[in-house]
């Protein structure tokens, strides 16, 4: 969300939009030392989020002159949308997976009691918004189903744009970046890349099974970028006989991640649920082929630039990975991916938000909100 906000803040001024970013300042959360998202600091941090920020936001709004829009960048903060307001509020909805779990749907998320209360506040806030920008049609469909009373005309699909200019780079440059980052051993043989976390919905257990089912003679590695595998995943890898073929790069910076995409045999992205799926277009921008599941928003975002499979078709995913060793098949998929990623320009995203702001301000003036 920070990258999303930074991207908009950087690009919107070119459309004549003055941006003032407001975020919670951690005060209570630091009373017991460094803030962390867990334990007592987390709960104290809620004081900053629910008491300190609304006051700071109100002061910022009052100080600004001219037409104004408040844009809540993450639907998880939709509770800030006030009941009575004299200016329009826009909320970007990235996914409703936790809300769906609260309603008893299986999204692999198990909300706590406190989580249930939080999601109720979020839903009420979403219902008060003047406009909701959904990052995919899949997310807007979930919104319409969960909040049927919210006018569909006030919920738009505004795709995310690339929040970093990932691109295809010279392979020698990419190789040097990995060597400098201590990842030179990845260059010994082809590797399959996954970018994400260990959340159940990311289906990293499925990734391990796909690698185990792939051509053993290739001796493919799998590289988990973003977060190292959990203890349970390490046990599964060992049981599948591929424990020595798992590599990890935690929290790679943009340059290293770009190099990983550029040199990967394929991005394997078999998620069970996604609100959007940024790694899909990041990989395509770098000329990395994509093999993925066909669930939720993934077909919409991956377009024709990926090999899509049913979630349980792990054997099919393994066959697609093998097929991508054919130079003609590989070149054709990369070309389609490069064409697809053009739909997700960050400049175009910022322009769509600029247009939305003007529209909601105009609607507000007409209705004297």
Summarize the entry for a quick read.
This protein is of the alpha/beta class and 369 residues long. The chain has two domains: 2-20 and 67-161 and 346-367, Rossmann fold; 171-344, Glycogen Phosphorylase B (Rossmann fold), CATH 3.40.50.
Shape: globular
**Biggest sheet details:** 6 strands, parallel
Helix content: 40-55%
DSSP E strands, number: 10
**Which structural category fits the helices and strands?**
alpha/beta
Q: Could you say how many structural domains there are in total?
A: 2
From N to C, what is the helix and strand string?
Answer: HHEEHHEHEHEHEHEHEHEHEHHH
Q: In words, what does this structure look like?
A:
The chain has 369 residues and is an alpha/beta fold. The chain has two domains: 136 residues, 3-Layer(aba) Sandwich (Rossmann fold); 174 residues, Glycogen Phosphorylase B (Rossmann fold). The chain has a six-stranded parallel sheet, with helices on both faces. Strands 1-2-3-4 form a four-stranded parallel sheet. It starts with a helix and ends with a helix. The relative contact order is 0.12.
């Amino acid at each position: 969300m920070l990258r999303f906000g930074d991207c908009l803040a950087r690009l919107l001024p070119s459309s004549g939009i003055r941006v003032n970013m407001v975020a919670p300042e951690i005060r209570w959360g630091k009373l017991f030392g460094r803030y962390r998202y867990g334990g007592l600091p987390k709960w104290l941090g809620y004081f900053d989020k629910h008491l300190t920020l609304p006051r700071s936001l109100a002061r910022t709004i009052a100080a600004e002159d001219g037409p104004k829009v408040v844009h809540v960048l993450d639907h998880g903060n939709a509770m800030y949308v006030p009941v009575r307001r004299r200016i329009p509020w826009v909320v970007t909805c990235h996914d409703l997976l936790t809300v769906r779990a609260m309603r008893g749907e299986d999204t692999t998320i198990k909300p706590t009691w406190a989580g249930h209360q939080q999601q109720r506040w979020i839903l009420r806030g979403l219902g008060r918004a003047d406009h909701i920008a959904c990052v995919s049609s899949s997310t807007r469909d979930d919104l319409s189903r969960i909040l049927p009373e919210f006018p569909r005309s006030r919920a738009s699909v505004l795709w995310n744009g690339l929040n970093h200019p990932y691109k295809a780079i010279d392979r020698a440059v990419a190789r040097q970046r990995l060597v400098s980052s201590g990842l030179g051993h990845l260059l010994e043989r082809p590797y399959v890349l996954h970018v994400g976390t260990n959340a159940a919905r990311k289906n990293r257990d499925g990734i391990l099974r796909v690698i185990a089912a792939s051509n053993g003679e290739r001796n493919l590695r799998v590289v988990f970028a973003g977060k190292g595998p959990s203890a349970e995943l390490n046990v599964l890898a060992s049981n599948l006989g591929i424990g020595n073929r798992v590599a990890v790069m935690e929290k790679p910076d943009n340059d290293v991640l770009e190099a990983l995409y550029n040199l990967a045999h394929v991005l394997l992205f078999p998620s069970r649920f996604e609100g959007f799926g940024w790694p899909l277009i990041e990989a395509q921008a770098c000329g990395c082929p994509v093999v993925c599941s066909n669930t939720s928003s993934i077909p919409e975002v991956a377009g024709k630039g990926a090999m899509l499979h049913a979630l349980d078709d792990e054997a099919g995913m393994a066959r697609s990975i093998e097929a991508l060793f054919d130079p003609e098949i590989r070149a054709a998929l990369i070309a389609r991916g490069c064409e697809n990623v053009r739909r997700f320009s960050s400049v175009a995203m910022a322009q769509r938000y600029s247009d939305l702001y003007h529209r909601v301000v105009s609607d507000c003036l007409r209705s004297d909100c």
